[in-house]
Amino acid sequence: MRLSLGVAFLGLVLRVQSPCVLAQAPRLDVVTDFPIVRAVYVNRFAAQSARKMKKLVALADSTEINALVIDMKDEFGLNFTTTNPAFAKNAGTAGVVKNLPALLDTLRAHKILAIARLVVFKDSVAAHVHPEWTIRRKDSTIWRDKKGIAWVNPYQHELWDYNIGVAEELAKMGFGEIQFDYIRFPEPYPSLPRQVFPSSGNTSKPDLLAAFLKEATTRLDKLGVRTTADIFGLVTTVNGPLEVGQYWEKISPNVDVVLPMVYPSHYPHGDFGIPVPNAEPYKVVSIAVGRAKQRDQKLGIKTPEHIRPWLQAFTLGKPPYGPEQIEAQKKAVYDSGYDGWVLWNPGSRYEPFVPALEKELVSRKK
């Protein structure tokens, strides 16, 4: 039985009123305790709300959900109070979870795996604080994307130390898994100035991303946590690297779990021979995950649950997404030979999809 929700959150409230002490939390055995992960995404603002977190914990208590992917570092900076003065310079101004150790205690009491999502190379806060870390234009000025946002330069090794250092701090606090997002370069749109990467040398984009993930995994392995990476869904079916540097054969061997974002709405009409991919969630997820599995097999990767796709829990175009579409995507994952998945809703609102969730976590993979 999971701990009473009221009792756990009473402890959270009491601890919020006390000084925050970032002592190292007891280690989790993620392999033994969480061999299957079925999670939902929790954005920065939901994580900062005790009311919303209470609802999400209740969702996990009453369904097959056993993990929460929580924004700890996003485009707005850090979402927790770091004890490292150098990291604190990049914190940003969008607020933080007031007492993260207490929240982690609550999740641990409810047997919920805490997964820290870290946005890596789309980091406007670090770009502002450390302009020397940024991607440049040919004239040496700072390159910006279509929204005017500056990106940091993935070839900058001080940036590696910052992101992996943040991950290590979060692991010591009690997160059982670190999920790196925006493990990529910005899109090189022809309408924008050419991107220049200081210190790139002769290292290709795919090799650079692979090297970052290999170093992160090596360091985080020592703390007993999983290292995972989010990638575009197209990476599973494109035979070669994307322009943003993501390449299945480079990324997959260097992390414990790969999370392709196989949202049906993101595939163009006619892809996979499907007129409207958004209307065929089972087919799209089956093809994307099935192809990823084949590529893992060719690499000799046979680790169970090495692929854990992000599933679409939002509406973008027609038809509107509800429980039926979630069930179809889940079935595609199971039929492909995997048990785990994560639901993405940008607002962290999952109430409309609850009917698609089972009451208990049971293995369903074929």
Structural notes for this entry:
The chain has 366 residues and is an alpha/beta fold. The protein has one domain: Alpha-Beta Barrel (TIM Barrel), CATH 3.20.20. It contains twelve helices and nine strands. It has helices at residues 5-16, 30-33, 44-47, 50-62, 85-88, 100-109, 124-129, 157-173, 205-221, 248-251, 281-299, 323-335; strands at 38-42, 67-74, 77-78, 113-119, 177-181, 226-232, 257-261, 310-312, 341-344. Strands 1, 2, 3, 4, 5, 6, 7, 8 and 9 form a nine-stranded mixed beta sheet that branches. α1 runs antiparallel to α6 (100-109). The protein is globular. The protein starts with a helix and ends in a 22-residue tail after the last strand. Mean pLDDT is 94; it is low at 1-22.
